[in-house]
Each structure stands twice: as C-alpha cells, then as structure tokens.
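User: What would this chain look like folded?
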Amino acid sequence: MLSVFYNTKPIMSTISYSTTHNFTAADLESLFLSVEWSSGHYPEKLVQAMQGFKTVISAWDGSKLVGMICVMDDSVMNAYVHYLLVRPEYQGQSIGRELVAQVKEKYKDYLRIVVVAYDKEINFYANCGFEKSTDASPMFITTLWT
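Assistant: Here's the prediction, encoded as structure tokens.
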C-alpha cells in the first residue's frame, strides 16, 4: 500500500494516499454523492467498478475517503483518467493535484494520458498539464445524469 503523508492547512488534517481497490459501498456512495455525481446512487456497482480499474489511488483523512482517481490503460501507450473527485470540503488543499501527480508519475513512460473534463474543470486540468483538444470532442452513451 502506497502512503504519502502531509499536513493540510484549512482543516488541519493528515491526508494519506492508498492504492487499494477495496472500498465499502458506503464510502463510495458518500464520496460520489458529495460531488453530486449520479453514479453515487449505484454504490454496489461502484464497488465492482473499482476492481476493474488498473489504477486506483485514494485519499484518506483517517478512515474517511476524501478523494480518488481511477485510471484505465492499455499497458503500453494510453491511460484514461476515468474518475477524479475530491469532497467539496477538502477541495483547494492540493489533494486533486497530488492524485494527478501520482498518476502522471506512474504513467510517465506512456505516450498519452487522457481525461474528459467538464467545462467548469478545464482550468484545473490545464494547471495540471493537460491541454484542451481543438479537434476532438467527448461523446457518450449514458443513462447517468451527471
């Protein structure tokens, strides 16, 4: 288990990072609904989904799941960031940046790391080194509403 510790200032907590793929449905439901993602209404499916990701890095404040990043990859060239979320009360403490930094380090030898960013998140990802495509658009088939 990978753990990195540092003190965050706004709520004076110690955040640790883990590469576990094992989460309770309650932990995932709470985290996903905290950012108003509709997938949080399917916590048992989220538990199963975590098992399928190649990379999962989670952020913890003690026993509280406060953030995570999940990545799928082809083992050689392309890595796709599927989830990156941080509880609203922990945002602005560089937790998201640290999660992205750990993914960038893990996939530094890959030719491409991809993320589909919602418009309100583009600046965050740009500050993490991602570039907005000028000739491609994300497309979905989904029953989720967020």
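The longest strand covers residues 64-73. If you want, I can go into more detail on any region.
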